[in-house]
Amino acid sequence: MSTELDVKGLAAQLQNAFGPMESDSSQIILKDQYRPMLESMVHAAHGDMLPDDHRYQFITDAVEALANYDDPEEAIEAIQPDVYTHDLTKWLASNNSRLDYLSEAITACQRTQVFRVEG
Fold this sequence. Notes:
Blueprint: H1 3-14, H2 35-46, H3 53-68, H4 72-78, H5 85-93, H6 98-109
Helix pairs in contact: 1-3, 3-4
């Protein structure tokens, strides 16, 4: 059995591991029979960040993509990032540490002014 099939098969099983997310809870719901296998994966995905709806959504999107594609590289390409300003600012505002990402992006682009207000 190839690695791709192992990843796809595991991801297909994991699709059933996540319960519905309550929009006001910011907690990942793991079904009990999957909890031992997934807790370390979910904690690793969150890093030093507290539970977060956007991270939860990414985890479930990644598992779904891996379950639906034979090639993990195609699965990665299938995960679509938010592109609308409203969604991006919700993501940015959901955790103060994300301001560092914005600062790094600004520095990388060598721009000093992100927003310009015309009056």
